[in-house]
Amino acid sequence: MGTADSASTPATAGLDTAPSIEPRPNGPFRVSNVANLLNARGEVLPTKAAYSLCRCGHSSTKPFCDGTHKTLPFDSSKLTDGSLNRREVYHHGRLTVFDNRGICSHSAHCTDELPAVFRLRQEPWIECSGADQTTVMAQVRRCPSGALSYSLDGVEYRDWQGPPRIFVRKNGPYEVSGGIVLKIGEPEWGEGASSEHYTLCRCGRSKNKPFCDGSHWDGFEDGQ
Ligand code: SF4
Ligand code: FES
Fold first, then answer.
1. How many whole angstroms from 44 Cα to the centroid of ligand 2?
2. 143 CB less than 6 Å from ligand 1?
3. pTM here?
4. Pick from 7, 64, 144, 224: most CB atoms within 10 A?
């Protein structure tokens, strides 16, 4: 199966100036060359060429790291057993929707905005025939985590176009888009995940670090 729409993935040349995020072991996300850091109100936060973002959930200067992780038993290990990390497929006509529950950040865009297709507590939970093809594809593109993607006539669409950007979701994860290089090993990515957009845990509770797994819903408040 081919893939398309991947032009936003940065070129490998000039990697020292490429936007990147490095998850530091038991420490923050070290971000380089990403000026477009937005808070939940859509305001651009002042940054330097390199800065550190909190991922233990306890910094007093969120979203930035203040070093608090050093005083905690913060463990950035991946703890999931991997049982949710598999891509399910849902077909209707020319359209196939892919879904990996293991990397969903539970933003609820899909279930809130298109409940006829993304159906809470029903089986199958994705029913592609619940809306026209264009509407389903547009909704899939609003999935911030990359849990959802689609193919049309056998051509897979998983990476979108857009400038490098980190959006700090209120009481939730970092929503990263625009092909910012995440410096992790290949096996750490979820099956079928996009490396162009993904969500990173900043509450410290995810079992699938560095990615968000929705655990922030259990009471994480960032004071934004
Ligand atoms: S992250 Fe994607 S799949 Fe998960 S709830 Fe949000 S839109 Fe739906
Ligand atoms: S921010 Fe979603 S699990 Fe931590």
1. 22
2. yes
3. 0.92
4. 144
Name the nearest CA neighbour of 199 among 53, 59, 72.
Answer: 53
Atom 4, ligand 1: residue with shortest CA distance = 104
Task: For ligand 1, say whether the CB of 151 is within 6 Å of any of its atoms.
Answer: no
Which is the closest atom of ligand 2 to the Cα of 204? Answer: 4
- Measure 169 CA to ligand 2 centroid, in angstroms: 10
Classify domain 87-157 by CATH number.
3.30.70
Residue whose C-alpha is closest to residue 194's, from 70, 65, 99: 99
pLDDT tens for each residue of 135-178: 999 999 999 999 999 999 999 999 998 999 999 999 999 999 99
**Amino acid letter, residue 149:** S
Alpha-helical (H) ranges within the chain are 109-113, 133-140
120 alpha carbon, closest ligand: 1
Q: If you average pLDDT over every residue of the chain, what do you get?
A: 93
Nearest to 176 by CA among 7, 50, 19: 19
